[in-house]
TrEMBL record:
Species whose genome carries this gene: Edaphobacter paludis
Protein name: Lysoplasmalogenase
Highest taxon listed in the record's lineage: Bacteria
Keywords from the UniProt entry: Membrane, Transmembrane, Transmembrane helix
Pfam families on file: DUF6580
TM region(s), chain numbering: 15-39, 73-92, 99-120, 126-146
Length: 182
């Protein structure tokens, strides 16, 4: 159940800039939420996460941005959603370590940065289709990459770290109680 609440929060986080009428909010719980959902649900349930985020993409494109919706513009993003869920399942199922969570965070943010900006470069006329144009596209996206790394680290850190911290505190309290009785 918690994984579904996390998924809803991830989807909701996509709407935050529009709710507050600002694009200054550089936070999204998508990467961390997908890692967590993938780690806590079976692989086949990845489709649920992808469908939820596809719905958000459609709504934002058509209603928030006022653009025509073209499925081809989102295929790479949708494949990425599934890949991050599956990465979470593979890397973080069971009892994840801090190193695995950090690896998942960096893999999530970096893969999105590489794929999404390559797609922007390929599919638009904003940047010339040259090495210099591709470089300019990636350089312009660095602030977004930084926001994604931070957002994903906060989300995944909280989702995986807080339960581990709570478990550690409970174990310490049990040990202290056992020592007090003896």
């Amino acid at each position: 159940m918690v994984a579904y609440l996390v998924l809803l929060f991830a989807v909701f986080s996509r709407f935050l800039p529009h709710i507050f009428s600002t694009t200054a909010i550089g936070f999204t719980a998508v990467g961390g939420g997908l890692l967590y959902f993938g780690a806590r649900r079976s692989r086949w349930q990845t489709i649920i996460a992808v469908l939820a985020l596809m719905g958000a993409d459609y709504y934002l494109t058509v209603f928030a941005y006022g653009y025509a919706f073209h499925t081809s513009a989102y295929l790479i993003t949708w494949v990425w959603y599934a890949a991050i869920c599956l990465l979470g399942h593979q890397m973080l199922s069971g009892k994840p370590s801090a190193l695995r969570v950090a690896g998942g965070v960096m893999a999530s943010a970096t893969s999105f940065f590489i794929l999404s900006n390559f797609a922007v470069w390929m599919g638009s006329f904003m940047y010339p289709h040259t090495v210099a144009g591709l470089s300019a596209c990636y350089i312009a996206a660095i602030p977004f990459y930084a926001n994604d790394v931070i957002s994903t680290a906060i989300t995944a850190g909280a989702l995986f770290g807080l339960p581990a911290l709570a478990s550690s505190v409970v174990e310490t309290m049990r040990e202290a109680q056992g020592n007090h009785i003896a």
